Amino acid sequence: MFDKEELLDVLKARVASDLVDLERRQRDAQHAATHEESRAEHAKDTRATEQGYLARGLAERVSELRRTLAALAVLPVRNFDSDEAIAAGAIVSVSDDVEAEQQHWWIVPGAGGIELEQSGQIVRTITPVSPLAQSLLGLQVEDEGTCRSGARERRLQIHAVT
Questions:
Q1: 9-67 confidence digits (pLDDT tens)
Q2: Model pTM score
Q3: Number of domains, the chain
Q4: Of 55, 109, 124, 154, which has the fewest beta carbons less than 10 angstroms from its beta carbon?
Q5: Is position 135 within any domain?
Q6: Residue 19 lies in a domain
Q7: Which of 114, 103, 68, 72 lies closest to 89, judged by CA?
Q8: For residue 31, how many other CB atoms are within 10 A of its CB?
Q9: Is residue 36 part of a domain?
Q10: In whole angstroms, how far apart are CA 127 and each of 31, 72, 89, 90, 105?
Q11: What is the pLDDT of residues 87-127, one digit of tens each?
């Protein structure tokens, strides 16, 4: 069984660290976009425009990470009973028709795609809107589900929900 409180602390720390790095990069890009050396020297010089696009994109990502961090700060941490349906906040242990090894997926409100390690076990985060989470939501232990992964369909076997 996983210690969700500990996993959540690690996840929040990782997102907070990413946010600090991204804010610095966004400030640098914004400064570069408004720097006098970025001014167009001729009609086809697009350096300032490109820097502006980069700064805007980074600012949007900063806002997204701030929202994710806020959502993680209020994420209720609870353990699911073995007969409960999978919902947001659950760690789901599954195997599929390709990999015999169990995989552990944690359905969280943001920060999908992050690998966390605890007691030698890897837990990967997914968001409720991801295709995998959509395939898992509502299922229970010993249920089977399917998830389309690229051109193929994966059959999933649910082993545990915590």
A1: 999 999 999 999 999 999 988 887 776 665 666 666 676 677 778 889 999 999 999 99
A2: 0.85
A3: 2
A4: 124
A5: yes
A6: yes
A7: 72
A8: 12
A9: yes
A10: 33, 12, 10, 11, 10
A11: 999 999 999 877 778 999 999 999 999 999 999 999 999 99
Q: CA 24: distance to chain centroid?
A: 21
Same domain, 51 and 102: no
Domain extent at residue 47: 4-73
Indicate whether 81 belongs to any domain: no
Report the 3 state secondary structure along the chain. Answer: CCCHHHHHHHHHHHHHHHHHHHHHHHHHHHHHHHCHHHCCCCCCCCHHHHHHHHHHHHHHHHHHHHHHHHHHHCCCCCCCCCCCCCCCCCEEEEEECCCCCCEEEEECCCCCCCEEEECCEEEEEECCCCHHHHHHCCCCCCCEEEEEECCEEEEEEEEEEC
Mean pLDDT score of the chain, rounded to an integer? 90
